[in-house]
Amino acid sequence: MPGENLSRDEARERAALLSVDGYEVSLDVRSATGAAQGDGPRTFRSVTTVRFRCNEPGASSFADLIAPSVTAVSLNGRDLDPSEVFDGSRIALEDLAADNELVVDAQCAYSRTGEGLHRFVDPEDGEVYLYTQYEPADSRRVFANFEQPDLKAPFRFEVRAPEEWTVWSNGAGERADGVWRFAETKPISTYITCVVAGPYHYVTDSYERVFEDGTRLEIPLGALCRKGLAPHFDADDVFLVTKQGLDFFHDHFDYPYPFGKYDQAFVPEYNLGAMENPGLVTFREEFIFRGKVTRASYEGRANVVLHEMAHMWFGDLVTMEWWDDLWLKESFADFMGTFGNVGATRFKDAWITFANRRKAWAYRADQLPSTHPITADIRDLEDAKLNFDGITYAKGASVLKQLVAYVGQDAFLEGARRYFKRHAYGNTRLGDLLSVLEETSGRDMSAWARSWLQTAGVNSLTPQVLLSAEGRVDELAVLQEAAESHPELRPHRVAVGLYRRTGEGALERYARAEVDVEGPRTVVAELAGAEAPELVLVNDDDLTYCKTRFDATSLATLRDHLGALTDPLARALCWSALWNMTRDALLPARDFVGLVLRFAGRESDIGVLQMLHAWANSALTHYAAPDWRQTGARLLGEGALRELRDAAPGGEPQLAWARFLAAVASGESELRLLRGLLEGTEKIEGLDVDQELRWAFLAPLAAHGDADEGVLAAELARDDTASGKRHQVRCLAARPSAAVKAQAWAQVVESDALSNALVEATIAGFAQASQRELIAPYAEKYFAAIERVWAERSIQIGMDVVRGLFPSLRDSQDTLDATDAWLSAHEGAAPALRRLVLEARDDLARALRGQACDAAAGR
C-alpha cells in the first residue's frame, strides 16, 4: 500500500500544472469468463487515451495506474519504454508539451477485494458478474488517469464483453459490432466513473418532470441485480422512492438532474453501502431482502437511495478539491437522505432513526483519539480512506441540521441553489459554501464554522433544576461540559422539555422552551415558575449535536417510567442518552440491560427497538463486569424468549425479538427452541422461519457446538447461493474448536485466497463472546501480524483485519499493555494503521472503565 499512496501536496502540485480535456477508455473484459491464463492474476486489457494541457511546457508530472503490466505507453506520439516509466503505480511523464496526448495500453487485474474492477462468480449458477468501485482512488486499478478529485474531465467508455452480457456505464450505452459504446459524460472526477457488466437482471422505468417554464425533463430509470436475486427484487419500491426523491430534490434545488439516465445496480460482495456514480449508482445487494425484514430495513434502504441521489448535486455536480473537504459531499448527503425521507417518502419518522442510530455512530467516533474536525486534515489517500467515518457523515449531518435551524431552512436551501449554479462541474472548498450561506442568511458564518466545523469533540449538556419552597421551578439552567482533550464549548440552539406523569400514568411534556446555550452555564428564563418536572430533557426535539445528561430526579424517573414516555422521539433521545452514559461508565451495564428488558417491549418504533437490542448485547459483551456476564446472558436470553412468545403473531416486533434471541441465545431452553424451529418440531404462531432467519438461528447453535460441519453443509445445500455461502462461512468459523479458529485465522491472515465478502464473514464468525478463552492466544499473533498484513494486502482487507481481529474480547489490562507496547515499538508504522490500533485501544480502555463501573454496582 505505501507505494500506492498520493499526498495532498503532490495532488496540489499536479493540479496547478495540468488540466484535463478528456478521457477515452477502452476495456476488454472477455477474459472474465472461462479459465484463467497462467499462474498470475486474471487480467483484462485497458487502453486509455488522455488529452491534457500543461501550463509549463517542458515540465514533468505523472499519471496513476496500478496494474500487473503495461504493454505500451505513448506520449505525444513518442513511444516510451514501459519498464523505464512505469513503477507499478505511476507512469512518469517527462518534457510535457502545452497540449498532450497520453496513450496507455495495460493489463489490469480483476479484483477480489471490492476495489477496482471486482469479479464475482455466482456459486448458484456459475455466472460471472463485474462492477467497479473506486472511492477514493481505485479507478487507477482499471485505467490510467490523474487520480484526484479536482482534475475533472469528460469520459468516453467502450467495453468489449462476452456476447450474452449487458454492460452499463455512467452514460447511455449501445452495442454495435460487439462493442458497447457509451455517451460522453459531463466533466466528472475519476472516482465516480463506473462500469457494471454481466448477465444482470435489469428492470426499467422512467421519470418525467415539467418545470414552471414549460421545459420537460425525462430520465430513464433502471435497476439491476444478479439473476439469482431477481425473485426477491422489489424494483417497484426502489423506483417509487427514486421518483419521490427526484421530485423532492427538484423542488428544493432548482437545478435539474444533470446526468441523463439514472441506473441503480445492486452488486455482490460490495464493501460500502452504496456509491454515487452519476447515472449508475451502485449498492450492496443486501438491500435486496431475501427474507422478511422490518420497516426499519426499508427505511434504511430509502435513506441510502436518497443519500446517493443527493450526491448527484453535492459531490458529483460540485466536488471538493481534496479529501479535506469530504464533508462537503458526505455530510450534506447524510443530512439530505433523512431530510428527503421525511419530506418525500412514507418514512415520516426518519429523524427518530437519525437521532438514535446515526448519532450513536457520530458520538462514538467523536470520542476516539482519532477524532477530527469535520473539515479534516487529510495528508494522503490512506488518511482519506479512513475519513469515511462517523464524524464526516453523521456528525456532519447533525451539524447541518443545526445549521438549518441557525440560518433558517429557506436561507439554507437558497444557499444550496446558488452554490450549484455558481460551481457547476467545478471543485470547491469550505469557504465557497460559507460565502453563499452568508449571502442568503445575512449571518457571519465564520464563528459558526470555527466552532462546529474546525474543532473536534462532543459537548455534554446537563440540566440543573432549583425548586422554590412551593415546589415550582425557581431556576433551570443548562450546564455545558467538554472533554479535556477538546475543550471547545460551542453555541447550541436547544429545546428544553419538562415532563410529568398524567393521571393515566403517561409521561408527557407540559412545558418547552428554546434557548441559545453559550458557555458553561445558561439559564432558561422562560421555564421559571413552571411546575416541578419529573423529567427534564435537554435537547428535546434533537436540535443540536451533544451528549444529553440527566439530573438525579430525571434519571430516577426514567428508571421507573421510561416506557411511559408517549413521544417516540423523546423516548429515542432518552435511550440514546442512557446508552452514552453506559459507554461513559456513568451507568452500570447491568442497569442498562435491565432497562432494556423492562421497557423495550413497549417500544413502538421498530428501528429504535432493534437498536436497543444491539446496544443491550454490546453492553453485556463489552461493559458488564466479567463475574456478571453469565447472569446477564441468562437474563437477556430469557427476556428475549419471553418477549418473542408474548409478541403479536406475524408483527415486526415478533421478528425483531426472534432475531435478538438468535443474537443472545446461550441457555439450553433458548437453544432448544431454535433447534426445534429449524427442525419443525417447534412453532411460534405467526413466525415464518424463512431462509435468512434459518441462518440467524444456526449461528448461535454453531457457536455453542450444536451445529457441526455436516449440519452447515446441509443448510448450504438447501441455500446454495452467494448469500448462503457467506452465512455458512461465518457459522463454520464460529464453531468452538481450537482447530477451527486456527484454520479461520490462517485463511484471513496468512492467505489472500478469500474474497472480501468471505474475509468479512470469517472474521465475524471467529470472534464470539462466548469463546474468550479459546481465542485468547491470538492476541499475541495479532500484534505480530498486523504490520505485515497492512503492507501486503489491499487497504480494504487491511482495515478489515486490523479492526475485526483486534483482541477486544481478551478485555484485560494485559491486552491494553500489549497494545501500548506495540504502539511504542511501531511509531514509524503507517499513520492509518496506527490510527486503527489507537481506536481499538480506546474502545478497550472504555470497556474496562465500564466493567469497573458495573462491578462497583454489584458490590
Structural class, judged by helices and strands?
Answer: alpha+beta
Strand order of the largest sheet: 5-4-7-2-1-10-13-12
Major sheet summary line: 8 strands, mixed
What's the overall average pLDDT, rounded?
96
Which bin fits the share of residues in helices?
40-55%
Shape: globular
Radius of gyration: 28 Å
Strand content: 15-25%
Number of helices: 28
What distance lies between the first and last C-alpha atoms, to the nearest angstrom? 50 Å
Could you tell me the number of beta strands?
Answer: 28
Q: Provide the low-confidence segments as ranges.
A: none
Structural features, described:
- With 859 residues, the chain is α+β, with helices and mostly antiparallel strands.
- The chain has 28 helices and 28 strands.
- The strands form 7 sheets. An 8-stranded mixed β-sheet has the order 5-4-7-2-1-10-13-12. It has a 5-stranded mixed β-sheet with strand order 15-16-17-19-18, with helices on one face.
- The longest helix is centred in the last third of the chain and has 27 residues, at 831-857.
Short description:
With about 850 residues, this protein is of the alpha+beta class. The protein has 28 helices and 28 strands.
Please describe the structure with a list of short key phrases separated by commas or semicolons.
859 residues, eight-stranded mixed beta sheet, five-stranded mixed beta sheet, 20% strand, globular
Secondary structure layout plus pairing:
Blueprint: H1 8-17, E1 18-28, E2 43-54, E3 61-64, E4 69-75, E5 78-80, H2 82-85, E6 90-93, E7 99-109, E8 116-121, E9 128-133, E10 155-160, E11 166-169, E12 173-176, E13 179-182, E14 195-198, E15 201-210, E16 216-225, H3 235-253, E17 262-267, E18 274-275, E19 280-284, H4 295-311, E20 319-320, H5 327-344, H6 350-366, H7 381-386, H8 391-407, H9 409-423, E21 427-428, H10 430-441, H11 445-452, E22 460-467, E23 473-481, E24 492-501, E25 507-517, E26 521-523, E27 535-540, E28 547-548, H12 552-561, H13 568-583, H14 589-599, H15 606-623, H16 629-646, H17 652-664, H18 668-679, H19 691-703, H20 709-718, H21 722-734, H22 738-750, H23 756-766, H24 772-775, H25 778-792, H26 795-804, H27 813-825, H28 831-857
Parallel strand pairs: 1-10, 16-17, 17-19, 20-21, 22-28
Antiparallel strand pairs: 1-2, 2-7, 3-6, 4-5, 4-7, 8-9, 9-14, 10-13, 11-14, 12-13, 15-16, 18-19, 22-23, 23-26, 24-25, 24-27
